[in-house]
Amino acid sequence: MENISLNVALLRRKVPNLTSAAKSVGLRPATVSNLCTGKIPVGRSEVRTIVALASLADCSLDELIIRGGKVEMIETGIKTLDVFAPLTKGGTVGLVARPGMGQLVIIAEVFYRLRKDGYKTMMLKPEGEHPEVDDLKEQFDVMDTDIEKVYEQIKANEQAKGIVFAADRSEVVNGEIFALQERLQKEGITSVTTFLLDLSGDSMDEELPYGPLETLWQFDIDLAARHMYPAVTPVSSTSTLLEDVYIDQTHFTVQQRARKLLRRYRELRSFVNVKGEASIPDSERQTYVRGERLEAYLTQPFFVAEEFTKQKGEFVHLKDALSDIQKIVDGATDTVKKDELHFIGKIQ
């Protein structure tokens, strides 16, 4: 298969309000979102969809479609993220969550880990009082409300291993983030990975809250309510890296099998909540047991939370996470108590 992908960065610059624009030409915003995140591979999309997107962006098909080249993954050591919705270096990740679901903890943890790995960490702080953001100060090399000063710091550190930059959705709505990204692109600065969060929580009610993204981390209220952190759901979180031309076959196969198992487990769990575990048909019990253990395994102790949880943070390499998940899906942990898989690193 030819290695092709959508030029998400170009689409983001050219069509800031993609939701309205997509609807105006008869495209479903969800379809466009899935194309941008790689959930629908470009090679399997309808020609008319790609043509319509090129028309919206006022560009040629050659400009809209990237051929060749491999997207680089940033490994965070966080199991759920690396396996199901990995970071694209130089891309944009959007966090979709309501307040209290752990998005700021995820930002703090990812930036802590990447900072230790040699990345420069920066944040455009929203104007006004945001005590919850102030608590993250120690994880950032630069935090400022002036986007011009943040730009100057990015320029000054462009030779670093990489730059990770966070901003609130309000800065996306007013167009400042798109303007900054376009400015950096024109100057050939491609090492900035952008994290967009939503302090208001409004993003959960919209189909494309940030416009096109390389990575989407969708938070789940049920996971958060049960303290299954990180509360990022593997079922609907995704990334362009998950297109099968970008990750190796083992990763792709394990990810697909695990997502299918978790999807069915969630359906069964809803049934159990009403009628009890005894109501699970014998034919589905194995699925329930394995889904329960996989969900427990995907929780993880964070370094930034050690003071509160009294548990040492854990870094799990992608190859170990994939191996462990394959064991769980294949039934090697069926006799292991689910609590023994809860908030651990890799399986010992």
From TrEMBL:
<keyword id="KW-0547">Nucleotide-binding</keyword>
<protein>
    <recommendedName>
        <fullName>ATP synthase A/B type C-terminal domain-containing protein</fullName>
    </recommendedName>
</protein>
<keyword id="KW-0406">Ion transport</keyword>
<keyword id="KW-0066">ATP synthesis</keyword>
<keyword id="KW-0472">Membrane</keyword>
<keyword id="KW-0813">Transport</keyword>
<keyword id="KW-1278">Translocase</keyword>
<keyword id="KW-0067">ATP-binding</keyword>
<dbReference type="InterPro" id="IPR024034">
    <property type="entry name" value="ATPase_F1/V1_b/a_C"/>
</dbReference>
<comment type="similarity">
    <text>Belongs to the ATPase alpha/beta chains family.</text>
</comment>
<dbReference type="Pfam" id="PF22919">
    <property type="entry name" value="ATP-synt_VA_C"/>
</dbReference>
<feature type="domain" description="ATP synthase A/B type C-terminal">
    <location>
        <begin position="247"/>
        <end position="320"/>
    </location>
</feature>
<dbReference type="InterPro" id="IPR055190">
    <property type="entry name" value="ATP-synt_VA_C"/>
</dbReference>
<dbReference type="InterPro" id="IPR050053">
    <property type="entry name" value="ATPase_alpha/beta_chains"/>
</dbReference>
<dbReference type="InterPro" id="IPR027417">
    <property type="entry name" value="P-loop_NTPase"/>
</dbReference>
<keyword id="KW-0139">CF(1)</keyword>
